[in-house]
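stuck on this chain:
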Amino acid sequence: MAVQLVSRYGFDAVMLTNRHCPAQAMIARQGARPLAYWPKGEASGFSALYTNPAKPARSTHICWPNFGRLSLIGDGSDIKLDENGIPTIGGTYGQYSLEKYRLGDTIRTLQMHGPSRTEDWEVIQPAENFAIMTYHHQPDKHFPFEAKLTVQALLTDSGSFSYDVTTTGPMITDLAIHTYLTWLKGMKVRGLKGVEYFEGSDWARSASNPLRSSETVFDTLTALEKHCILNGRKVFDLGYPSADIRMRYSVFGEPVHPNQMILWADPNEGDFACMEPELCERNSINNGTAYQLRKNHSLSLGFSLEQAG
């Protein structure tokens, strides 16, 4: 069938619908960004996924082949560079080397969260409720691997929305999804209590602590950044008492389940609470802990959202 394209937030986007339920979802071609998921339809006014109309880059996106900024030195002093590695105010590039993988000691730069979130993806839509999007990366001075990423987005008959991305080797890579979840006053997240977390930046963290009950209730939105260890946790229930709705947010990966997740919010950037599952630690390419994918081997990461009973 023809792709159902709409224009929103300055993006060309694919609209998903399902004749068996009122739910709708919308995914931008740029970055394969899920811009919205309305469990009761767009007319209801409530989307579980958030996009800032004034800053549409503040929307859910894939982080590949790196999550966050890369620091070759390891202390964060070399993360605000231009694409040529020159320090600059507001620079979004960091440095890395593949030396720990015995792939040479060339120093390269990669932009924060990688290139896939800003490029246009190819899209086909086999059905009104299903879209497949692909991004092809050719080797360049920033990332010397040929790579293919594939996103599958599905709106089921029951109204749930699933989104997963698969990347295929050979390459050195991390993979994460920066999920912008809508914040409303009184928002509660069940499933977080007791999760071990480190507070602070990527380069200077506090000792670990378990999340307390009070830290899983977001009556007001304040700035936060917590690096959480999931230890197998997969399902989180999001309560929105002011909208009288509860959503279930689940994360998954193949062949490994994501073991880390960043909780992040910045009220200056919009009304969202980010839950960001990742397969590796921050700065993993430099740390030697990124995945070494062999030819035709894959990694996948995804999430689903549905109304909870």
Notes: The longest strand covers residues 245-254. Residues 284-287 form the longest helix (4 residues). Residues 225 and 264 are 5 Å apart (CA to CA).
